[in-house]
Design a protein that fits this description.
The protein contains four helices and no strands. The protein starts with a helix and ends in a 5-residue tail after the last helix. The protein is an all-alpha fold. Helix 1 crosses helix 2. The protein has one domain: Orthogonal Bundle (Non-ribosomal Peptide Synthetase Peptidyl Carrier Protein, Chain A), CATH 1.10.1200.10. The relative contact order is 0.20.
């Protein structure tokens, strides 16, 4: 799951994949703004067929937060 999220973020934010680590702060370390976060949300919802509530999205600070959320989703 981490590799998938890394690829999405690296492309979307135009950063080197090596910068996208589990500990990386999405806004501070990777330079994401609120539009980037919204685009990430829409991409994840489309790719994984889920709805991510706003209160959950607000808790995503690190790449690891996103990965852990996706890891807990039921797999088909």
């Amino acid at each position: 799951m981490f590799e998938e999220v890394r690829t999405i973020l690296a492309r979307q934010l135009r950063v080197a994949p090596e910068r996208v680590t589990m500990e990386a702060q999405i806004k501070r370390d990777l330079g994401a703004d609120s539009v980037d976060i919204l685009q990430l949300l829409m991409r994840l919802e489309d790719d994984y067929g889920v709805v991510i509530p706003d209160e959950t999205l607000a808790k995503f600070e690190t790449v690891g937060d996103v990965v852990r959320f996706l890891d807990q989703l039921p797999r088909p």
